[in-house]
Specification:
By secondary structure, the chain is an alpha+beta fold. The chain has three domains: 3-293; 307-422, Phosphorylase Kinase, domain 1, CATH 3.30.200.20; 438-657, Transferase(Phosphotransferase), domain 1 (Orthogonal Bundle). Helix content is 51%, strand content 10%. The protein starts with a helix and ends with a helix.
């Protein structure tokens, strides 16, 4: 078939398919907006909305939804609408008929009725689908919102010229008696048809659909905040996952994969976010046993209280703990209750805001430490986080005489909190292997391949993306807090240690906290070396208002790390700066954004890497928001998350060398 004929066939099929697709959306809208849905069944409606978003993703990726606006460019770039023209039309017709038949059957059985109140021209069903979607905690992009409005208006205009058509085109359904079994069957069939729609596309388009769906899923998670809504979300995800078992990749790669794999990751994130929220409850637990079981909450209060470890059970390695009290981590032995000894590593958190003679940190510090230790200890933890497993914490400050060791001596005591971390069980990692930071590697290790550095950049950005997806800020992101555990390897020179740059661990959670409007910020003290990674607006010490730190500041810190990776030098060496000059540290952002500096990043790593780095450093409009926007609001958080994914994480994953 010649190209001109093929293009003509593709556009003709797309024109017909777009009409059927519009009918699919109309039918779905009537069902998902039906009133009087029982509270206990709202998770089914949520699942249906997510399947609708998946169908939208297919239409956008294939080029069907906007084929008139772009003159069929996407349609002609792919041969999908030529090779699979019959299958596409057949599947879309099946989806349209599925919802028509469901509505007819439910109406015939008097389970569904037309709402008695008249629907006027300002009906939310037609003119404000975004408001309806937001109330269900499902984000709706502007192109999809416009398409729904157009579809419902077209149905309304057609119905007005038909006898009895007013109730057909301008109506709102309501549930008189909800048929759960029939609704579940509808969901299963719709989900299967969606799977089939994706399967007929080529590798590239399937990859794009998976990306778009994952982005939508993160938006859904962003809008589900309290335990009740997170409970509904996990139940909605379980509908799909109970059918079959799918593995979850440590860090989802952008390759065609069944939708259920992404849903399983989303469920893990939702459960972790729920546990995070549960740690802030006071008094009797406001959730019931069923909610706790679905969300795998366990007993948050008990888990929080049990995170403290007796100082006498921790035996610091004198080689790594006594030489430099300013070191942020060291090796140690943890002695368990049963006498078993385990090699661990310690992350230190200093505290000096206490009353003279006090034997414990202030209550605020203790509360923060317990929450953080609980989060890092809680299982299951999403693998996408790439964070080490915390066994608990101990206070390394002054102790009572009864707490001293057998010889009555204090071992390297100073007012610091020690977080105790388990060594990873990755293949080839010895229990004796201490963590090595990216900062140390930048200072002493030969420059790795460009491909290794790009994988590392993408892995760290992806970790931050998922950390933010559960509403948690790192607030200490820098090369000192990106660690690796080298594996044993052999070559002609004998045994050597090899670093897998695609498997970093994000550590240094000493000042991490939830990103909530009511959460106070504990601002880190002035350490010039660390200030070089901090956004200028965050530099200071003591305690300040909650608004002083936000997600975009974490992203800025990532940008500084990306600059380091491009040159394989620490930031002070990249800029040839004296780390002790505080005023210089405050000007680092402006220096890094100079055109010559940004171009230097591109000359080392390529144009896409350069753009991603510039986006992180610039923030604001470059990330789709204003400097003055409140990043704790749903709308702003959603825009920031989407921009960070599209312009940074996705771009870094797409870099080819």
């Amino acid at each position: 078939m010649d190209p001109i004929s093929a293009a003509g066939i593709a556009l003709s099929v797309a024109s017909l398919a777009s009409q059927v697709f519009m009918g699919c959306i109309q039918g779905i809208q009537f069902i998902i907006t039906a009133k009087n849905l029982p509270e206990e069944s709202k998770y089914l409606n949520l699942r249906l909305r997510m399947e609708q978003q998946r169908l939208f993703a297919w239409s956008e990726t294939s080029g069907l939804m906007d084929h008139q606006e772009d003159n069929g460019r996407k349609i002609q770039e792919s041969n999908t609408f030529v090779i699979h023209r019959t299958t596409i039309l057949d599947l879309l017709v099946q989806i349209q008929c599925l919802f028509k038949e469901f509505e007819k059957a439910q109406t015939r059985n008097k389970h569904l009725q037309i709402a008695p109140e008249p629907v006027n021209s300002e009906d939310d069903l037609i003119y404000d689908p975004a408001k309806d979607s937001s109330s269900a905690h499902v984000p709706l992009s502007e192109p999809r919102r416009r398409f729904i409005i157009r579809a419902m208006k077209e149905l309304k205009s057609k119905a007005e010229g038909v006898a009895g058509g007013l109730s057909t085109g301008r109506r709102r359904l309501l549930w008189a008696a909800f048929d759960k079994a029939a609704f579940e069957n509808l969901l299963q069939r719709f989900s299967t048809l969606n799977d089939n729609m994706t399967d007929i596309l080529d590798f590239r388009l399937q990859t794009e659909i998976h990306r778009t769906t994952q982005d939508t899923n993160r938006g859904v998670l962003q809008l589900h905040k309290d335990l009740a809504s997170l409970h509904q979300l996990v139940k909605a995800l379980d509908i799909k996952m109970q059918a079959r078992s799918y593995p979850v990749h440590e860090i989802p790669q952008y390759a065609p994969t069944n939708d259920a794999a992404g849903l399983r990751l989303l469920a893990q994130l939702a459960k972790f976010k729920a546990f995070n929220e549960s740690l802030d409850t006071e008094g009797p637990a406001p959730w019931d046993e069923a909610t706790a079981m679905v969300l795998q909450l366990g007993q948050p209060d008990a888990e929080k209280a049990n995170t403290k470890i007796e100082r006498s059970r921790i035996h610091l390695n004198p080689k790594t703990s006594s030489t430099d009290l300013s070191a942020i981590r060291c090796e140690a032995i943890f002695e368990h209750d049963i006498g078993e000894k385990q090699r661990v590593w310690i992350e230190w958190k200093e505290y000096d805001y206490q009353k003279p003679g006090a034997l414990s940190p202030p209550a605020l510090i203790v509360d923060r430490v317990q929450k953080l230790a609980s989060l890092l200890h809680h299982s299951p933890k999403p693998e996408a986080f790439r964070v080490p497993h915390c066994l608990g914490y101990f206070d390394n400050g002054p102790r009572e005489a009864s707490e001293l060791d057998s010889e009555g001596e204090e071992e390297a005591l100073d007012p610091r909190i020690g977080f105790v971390f388990e060594k990873p069980k990755d293949e080839g990692v010895s229990p004796d292997t201490p963590p090595v930071s990216l900062f140390d590697l930048l200072s002493s290790s030969p420059k790795p391949r460009v491909t290794d550095r790009i994988r590392l950049a993408h892995a760290v950005a992806n970790c931050l993306l998922y950390l933010h997806s559960v509403n948690w800020l790192h607030k200490g992101l820098r090369s000192h807090n990106i660690v690796f555990f080298p594996t044993a390897s052999k070559d002609k020179r004998g045994g050597i240690k090899k670093v897998d740059y695609s498997k970093p661990y994000l550590s240094g959670f000493d000042f991490a906290r939830p990103a909530r409007a009511d959460e106070m910020t504990e601002i880190p003290g002035d350490v010039p070396e660390y200030n070089m990674y901090r956004h200028p607006s965050t530099q200071g010490q003591g305690f300040g208002p909650r608004e002083s730190f936000r997600k975009s500041f974490d992203i800025y810190s990532l940008g500084v790390v990306l600059v380091e990776l491009a040159s394989w030098q620490t930031i002070d060496r990249v800029l040839d700066l004296d780390v002790g000059r505080m005023r210089t540290a405050m000007k680092i952002r402006d220096t890094l954004l100079e055109e010559s500096r940004i171009q230097e990043v591109g000359s080392n790593m390529g144009e896409m890497y350069e753009r991603a780095t510039a986006k992180c450093l610039a923030g604001g409009n470059e990330l789709g928001i204003l400097e003055t926007d409140d990043e704790t609001s749903d709308a702003v958080a959603a825009k920031l998350s989407m921009a960070f994914y599209e312009d940074v994480v996705k771009k870094l994953g797409d870099v080819k060398v």
